Amino acid sequence: MPGIESLPIAKAADQTIAVLPRMANRHGLIAGATGTGKTISLRVLAEQFSRIGVPVFLADVKGDLGGLARPGGDSPKVVERAALLGLTLEPSACPVVFWDLFGTQGHPIRTTVSEMGPLLLARLLNLNDTQSGVLNIVFKIADDDGQLLLDLKDLRAMVEEVGTRAAEIRTRYGNVSTASIGAIQRGLLGLEQQGGEHFFGEPALDLDDLIQTGAGGAGVVNILAADQLMQTPALYSTFLLWLLAELFERLPEIGDPDKPKLVFFFDEAHLLFDDAPKALRDEIERVVRLIRSKGIGVYFVSQNPLDVPDEVLGQLGNRVQHALRAFTPKDQKAVKTAADTFRANPKLDVARAITELAVGEALVSVLDERGAPTVVERALVFPPRTQLAPLDPAARTALIKASSVYGHYEQAVDRESAYERLKGRAAAHGGPADAPAPRGRAGGGAQDQVTKAVISIGTSVVRSMGTQAGRSIVRGVLGALFGGTRRR
């Protein structure tokens, strides 16, 4: 049986399989075909991490993880599984904070255009190399001119400005074609129509708000509402990649802690790597490899192990493999690949077992005290202790309003930035003097929200301004890794 410090997640014929907390930041993989039990495995891991005081961030792509906030154990399937495993199940709940890029099912999440940086924005806008180069020029000129890029209207205005000045800036920054300017503007329009404008602005997300504990020291489970977000997979995957990159850059090195500082679940992991250029994939691999020293554990959730590149797959030490189907040659290759990545068990035909696993059954291998993978075992995943049914809207709303961060992000604030300054410059030279009123102004009885927003803006200013006379607008970590300037 595992010791008190371990995190039991499954039971094989003669042993309980548990994740060791001090090995949990060495990442993991939950894989399997649709309907085989991946979400239950994710839920059980999240519950266990929360129990020992480790905050969790996960995306709720099906809208059924809100029940983590309520004690469960009364589902017939849960009762049956507990009896089968000989467990005395103690229903419990996790402290939960709900987030939503669109601000309807949770606290809004925002970042600034400058924080996102040109590399990730180019991926989000589906730009080619030439168009990406022009976007880099736009950001560079914004830096040099001291223009703050906070939201999409700032970026649109700056792109228009660069297009207007194309002949003037050619010798210093390079050629800026009308076609590239048009492609960027069309991409921004499409992003805005998909709801992307909700994501850019202030107050920007404070990462410390994701790393909290609740009553009794339990780790807070941060649930991102992703059912609507999944309709725009590029925005979903780019947002999660941005968040992972920000955690990588902002958090200090702590080596190998006794338990993770945060565990990050990346569901629908294939979206992260689909159509990603090799340079970006290389940087994702680098971030995953190095972020463990920041105390962050990254767990990819995917239907197929082949969705994750080999250079990343090799870093995922804690593995839960649910059933795979082998109907086609590609499926058979996936089964063989999954089987070959486990430490062999002479008592088990792994490739055959993968195709025979029942729902809620998995092949499990975790890292031992030395950091080596254990022999793979065929096991039954433990039942969750929280409510399986989705949380009803009224209960979700009540939890959102009771959250410690409620009121901090709800009111968007629009301060003077590139859009306002460029419009003012145009008006001074005889252009249209009236600009649309800034969005998101607080009013009437919301003084506490305004105060919190102002504090957040102050934090954002510190993040957004460098040391070079306050003119350098900072970039996300992936941009820095490609030669940009995060801190000057």
Question: Could you explain how this protein is built, in words?
Answer:
- Helix 3 runs antiparallel to helix 4 (129-145), helix 4 (129-145) crosses helix 5 and helix 5 packs across helix 15.
- The protein is of the alpha/beta class.
- The protein starts with 6 loop residues before the first strand and ends in a 7-residue tail after the last helix.
- It has two domains: 7-109 and 204-399, Rossmann fold (3-Layer(aba) Sandwich), CATH 3.40.50; 113-201 and 411-481, no CATH class.
- The relative contact order is 0.19.
- It has 17 helices and twelve strands.
- Residues 432-474 and 480-488 have low confidence and may be disordered.
- The chain is globular and about 80 Å long.
- The protein has a twelve-stranded mixed beta sheet, sandwiched between helices.
Outline of the structure:
This protein is of the alpha/beta class and 488 residues long.
Mind sketching the topology for me?
Elements: E1 7-11, E2 16-19, E3 28-31, H1 38-51, E4 56-60, H2 76-85, E5 96-100, E6 107-108, H3 113-124, H4 129-145, H5 152-164, H6 166-173, H7 178-193, E7 221-225, H8 233-250, E8 262-267, H9 270-273, H10 278-291, E9 296-302, H11 310-313, E10 318-321, H12 329-340, H13 350-356, E11 361-365, E12 377-381, H14 393-402, H15 418-428, H16 447-464, H17 477-481
Parallel strand pairs: 3-9, 3-10, 4-7, 4-8, 5-6, 5-7, 8-9
Antiparallel strand pairs: 1-2, 1-12, 10-11, 11-12
